[in-house]
Amino acid sequence: MVLRGCPQVHDLSPSAFVMRLERDGLEFRPGQNVSLGLTGSSHLREYRIYSTPEQGDLEVLIKEVEAGLVSRQPHRCQPGDKPSVDGPHGFFVIEEQDLGRHFLFVACVSREPGGDFHARVADYLRQHPVDPATLCYLCGSSDMIYEAIDILRGYGVPTAHLLAEVCF
């Protein structure tokens, strides 16, 4: 889907921003993502949808990567450039019938300063047992996800309670 006009960009920090686009009828569920790029470019990247389904615009949260082929484009958009959006994709959603349950969200990010835990995700999971009734959402590299699943299964968490999406 090609959207009209340049996106609006709202900087959150020196390296993170929200990009707002006209939604043009795109339907999605919270937790899904879209692939973004400029029309005519072969470079697309997946980004989580930041807006709610009720909002009129589509917003995505982007971390700008210094040598990134896509993450730097919104700041350089010129009149006439048109963003290309593919999606939505993903099943990282919370079903309404599960709203009263316990959740575990694990996202593997680079070991940047800040945050509460400075070690491997697997180390954290080994130090903090998980109740088997917990719905576990895992997002990160495939190696991290496989290791986390093994640990969680060891706690008795059934496969049906493990949702994972690989992010690069």
Q: What's the CATH class of the largest domain, please? A: Mainly Beta
Distinct helical segment count: 3
Major sheet: arrangement of strands: 1-2-5
Give the ordered list of helices and strands.
Answer: EEEEEHEEHEHE
Shape: elongated
Q: Write down the overall mean pLDDT.
A: 83
CATH topology of the largest domain: Elongation Factor Tu (Ef-tu), domain 3
* Largest pleated sheet: 3 strands, antiparallel
The CATH superfamily of the largest domain is identified as Translation factors
Strand fraction: 25-35%
Compute the number of strand runs.
Answer: 9
Classification by helices and strands: alpha/beta
Helix percentage: 10-25%
Q: How many domains make up the coordinates? A: 2
* N/C terminus separation: 23 Å
- Low-pLDDT stretches are none
Question: Over the alpha carbons, how many angstroms does the gyration radius reach?
Answer: 18 Å
- Annotated CATH architecture of the largest domain: Beta Barrel
SSE blueprint:
Elements: E1 8-11, E2 16-22, E3 33-38, E4 45-48, E5 57-63, H1 73-76, E6 83-89, E7 103-107, H2 121-127, E8 135-140, H3 142-154, E9 162-166
Parallel strand pairs: 7-8, 8-9
Antiparallel strand pairs: 1-2, 2-5, 3-4, 3-6
Helix pairs in contact: 2-3
